[in-house]
Specification:
heterodimer; A: 121 residues; mainly beta; four-stranded antiparallel sheet; B: mainly beta; seven-stranded mixed sheet; three-stranded antiparallel sheet; 10 strands; 0% helix; globular
Amino acid sequence: QIHLMQSEAEVKKPGASVKVSCKASGYSFSSHGFGWVRQAPGQGLEWMGWIGAYDGKTNYAQKMQGRVFMTTDSSTNTAYMELTSLRPDDTAVYFCGRLISGFELYYFDYWGQGTLVTVSS
Amino acid sequence: SYVLTQPPSVSVAPGETAKIPCGGNSIGSKRVNWYQQTPGQAPVLVMYYNNQRASGIPERFSGSNSENTATLTISRVEAGDEADYYCHVWDSSTDHMIFGGGTKLSVL
């Protein structure tokens, strides 16, 4: 069955970087891209960006431009999201999702369990 | 940028019908998806492309989308339906995804 397994929680200091992983299983890794969504404590879902399946093309939310970097490693079936120059308001649960994309249709059909990133001095 | 507007909360008695609206400018021209999230858990896809139920989602869940409002309808509401529900679209003008602010469904 399809499963996305994310890395463990992280605690980082302001200014540091964090790299969250999302290991996929149960399907052909190269057939789908990945998206990343975060959720601050008590808040809603915020789209961060996605990375395409075939060409690794990325598309980042305007708010994240310059600080977020998404990659994939097909040798380990793992997607990564790195966020740099961390601030306290980056404290959130970060989710990966398997991206379904088509003609003007984009959504996430499977999700990882989430990774809590805490930014605190 | 494109904005999706959801009411913060909707309350309904067990067995009744819940309607969760998602407002957006000409949202009827977009493909709307819906996710359900319970506390401490990852979101779960319940509806995609306006009215297509995701795998394993009961027929009690249905979706519609017209003009400026998309709606997730849950018939014969059960206690287990209590959750936060988020609408979601892809905006072609920016090539970005947008989530609504979420609606907490309370089953009285």
